[in-house]
């Protein structure tokens, strides 16, 4: 048995580490890549994800490619998936690309009982030359690791997972429709798989990735949506899990969405606190455009205060807008005097701006839709009408959407596009 002094030394070394991970024999480890030698008590390194250990098993029964016109988001999946097991004793195991199919999990797996689960969503695109790219996968890996730490799941080498994603996409790249506006949606997921009941960090986990060909979110053009300002429910609270992409964030929102639909609205607008601070639009980040007294145009989004998910599209929109505002990377069509603000904003301010003619537009941002314009918000029994252009978009969302989609589709060269294959 280790002495009290040794135990304190070990505890100190663990608590000073950058991230926290699962427990093993009652001790909480600093990361998924650290364990304790059972004989000496010394900390030892455990394997992280290694691309060189990838095993590939090709399906014997490839599925026929679906008609592009019949694609429904998230309903069709490619022939293969990626799996990577993890255990507290052995670290990350060998990655495997294998035929898409059911997972074998015990009924007592912690994911089923304590929602030890997180996921990501990103896309791969094919440009006119046939080159396949991913859009900002480093941001998804960073957020995935952040989410993992929040629910005591193991962290991992994001760069290694990106390389494995490339291999999976190369395997199924023929599933990406060769039609403008279409892409391959990629869903990395990490779950706790330990076969034991009890609320604690799991000692077994599984990272897996599935892919789905998808079409444009608005195939016949932009259709502004009507929102219902939800005051009956809260999506998140300070110190909670709102800033993490966990499955536990999404299931409770379905009831609010159903109630909004029953009232005749497309989606709900999450409001927080007695002052009804605007947070998110359904499962998207929120953007509001206001006209200031001096004629400047202000693009406002709620700050990352722990309740807001740090969306990749959100960050992309803000980065492009700031590049334009600074003059470093002007975007054709955007207002010349543009202010970008990450600040709290309430429904009272938005309502007053609408009444005073200063509300320019309101839209959501997310991976699936990129930009989702809003033309009406139901709030406390009244409808606030929001201006939209003939194409359904506004003077800020339209040029930013055009530029962002240009980067994603490859018509605009940008370091955010990560090459998977040249042909």
Residue runs with pLDDT of under 50 for 5 or more positions: 1-31
Radius of gyration: 23 Å
Shape: globular
CATH superfamily of the largest domain: D-amino Acid Aminotransferase, subunit A, domain 2
What is the CATH architecture term of the largest domain?
Alpha-Beta Barrel
Average pLDDT figure: 90
**Structural class by SSE content:** alpha+beta
Enzyme class: transferase
EC number: 2.6.1.42
Modified residues (N6-(pyridoxal phosphate)lysine): 245
GO molecular function: branched-chain-amino-acid transaminase activity
Question: Quick summary of this structure?
Answer:
The protein is α+β, with helices and mostly antiparallel strands and 423 residues long.
What does this structure look like?
The protein has 2 domains: 164 residues, 2-Layer Sandwich (D-amino Acid Aminotransferase, Chain A, domain 1); 189 residues, D-amino Acid Aminotransferase, Chain A, domain 2 (Alpha-Beta Barrel), CATH 3.20.10. 22% of the residues lie in helices and 29% in strands. Helix 3 packs across helix 4. It is globular and about 70 Å long.
How are the elements arranged and paired?
Elements: H1 4-15, E1 23-24, E2 27-28, E3 34-36, E4 43-45, E5 55-56, E6 80-87, E7 91-92, E8 96-99, H2 110-114, E9 117-119, E10 122-126, E11 132-135, H3 137-150, H4 158-171, E12 183-192, E13 204-214, E14 225-230, H5 253-262, E15 267-272, E16 277-281, E17 284-291, E18 297-301, H6 312-326, E19 338-342, H7 347-355, E20 359-366, E21 370-379, E22 382-385, H8 397-409, E23 417-421
Parallel strand pairs: 5-8, 14-15, 14-21, 18-19
Antiparallel strand pairs: 1-2, 3-4, 6-7, 6-8, 6-13, 9-12, 10-11, 10-12, 11-23, 12-13, 15-16, 16-17, 17-18, 17-20, 20-21, 21-22
Helix pairs in contact: 3-4
